[in-house]
Specification:
single chain, alpha/beta, Rossmann fold, Dihydrodipicolinate Reductase, domain 2, 2 domains, 9-stranded mixed sheet, 7-stranded parallel sheet, globular
């Protein structure tokens, strides 16, 4: 894990020239890290016009030797280049061989479950942590639910309500959808299983600006994450139909910057509800651009891993390996607004609107 800069840890970012990568690279720089921006084309990396101090390297995910060269000097890799069904195992294998921590942003269930099933022991032997789905989908619901369960050994259910007022997909999201790689695994009666029924539809009242919306049950990677470490009988995820209609529209535009931080105009409200008997705890998060909030999440993850403040090895869910409250408090400073029940960033109790 040799460093190639005296500015702090060096972190490889695979898929750096994509939409999410252009948030991740500045976040790493703000943490005093040296990013290695990796892509299939040096021309595309140069066109991204990253700040001085960013190392540019070309690599082919299907070529282990090129990945090994691209990872030289890095202490961790952030994998952004989906579909993860096609790229996840190649990159995690390269990370294990290089002995560097691995973090990805997969909303996909299939790859996330594969990492837990196949790579826990190899990661432990390599002395590294593998953290899948450290992103808006997967990691953020997992961290909030983990925080809400503080002091409770188990709960009856966790509900995840994802409210988007629109969803203009990136090229990576579009490729994932075309690959049909998200998955249809649910967690019910204390175990993971393929869903056996048509998606459930209902109405939900989100906070402003998403408001009242019909939602459809669609499981993402948080189902797999929560099943690994939260004691619950059931996990259910719903998302606004307007977002699904947008993302399935082949003519939907790419996200484009709408503020000085480069975030799109997309609004999100994420509601998490945990239930134990007749007791219930709720929290919500709201902000702009579900892709952009991924950057501080993966940035904080590699900061904690490379600093040695988190010393776990193996494949771990974000809520299992990190202090959920610490991550949420970091996000609350400049990236996302929280409300709900303590212990979520010290907020006061709010109910469903």
């Amino acid at each position: 894990m040799a460093k190639i800069s005296n500015k702090g840890p060096t972190v490889a970012v695979l898929g750096a020239a994509g939409y999410t990568g252009r948030f991740v690279i500045p976040d790493l720089l703000s943490r005093g890290m040296t990013p290695i921006a990796i892509g299939r084309s040096l021309e595309a990396l140069k066109a991204a016009k990253f700040a001085d101090g960013v190392i540019l390297r070309e690599a082919n995910i299907d070529d282990p030797e090129s990945l090994a060269k691209a990872f030289e000097g890095a202490e961790a890799v952030i994998h952004l280049a989906g579909p993860f069904l096609d790229t996840g195992e190649q990159v995690v294998n390269a990370a294990i061989k290089a002995g560097i921590h691995y973090v990805d942003v997969a909303a996909e269930q299939i790859n996330t479950q594969t990492l837990f099933e196949k790579y826990d022991e190899p990661a432990r032997k390599a002395g590294i942590a593998v953290v899948p789905a450290m992103a808006f989908f997967g990691g953020l619901p997992d961290l909030i639910a983990t925080s809400l369960m503080e002091g409770w050994d188990s709960v009856d259910s966790v509900e995840v309500m994802i409210g988007f007022d629109r969803w203009h997909p990136t090229k990576g999201t579009r490729n994932t959808l075309n690959r049909k790689a998200v998955g249809d695994t649910v967690f019910k009666e204390g175990r993971l299983a393929l869903t056996s029924h048509a998606p459930v539809e209902k109405d939900w009242s989100f906070a402003h600006p998403v408001g009242d919306q019909p939602v459809l049950e669609v499981p993402f990677s948080e189902t797999i994450l929560m099943a690994q470490h939260l004691k619950t009988s059931e996990v259910r995820t719903f998302i606004t139909k307007v977002a699904l209609n947008d993302v399935m529209d082949p003519n939907a535009p790419l996200p484009k910057a709408a503020d000085k931080k480069g975030r799109s105009a997309q609004n999100y409200v994420l509601d998490i509800i945990v239930t134990r008997g007749n007791e219930q705890r709720r929290a919500h998060a709201h902000g702009n651009d579900g892709y952009a909030i991924t950057a501080p999440m993966v940035g904080k993850a590699v900061e904690l891993l490379t600093s040695g403040k988190v010393r776990a090895t193996g494949v771990k869910a974000p809520g299992d390996i990190f202090d959920a409250k610490e991550i949420l408090e970091m996000l609350a400073v400049d990236h996302c607004t929280f409300g709900g029940v303590t212990p979520v960033v010290g907020a006061t109790l709010t109910g469903r609107r």
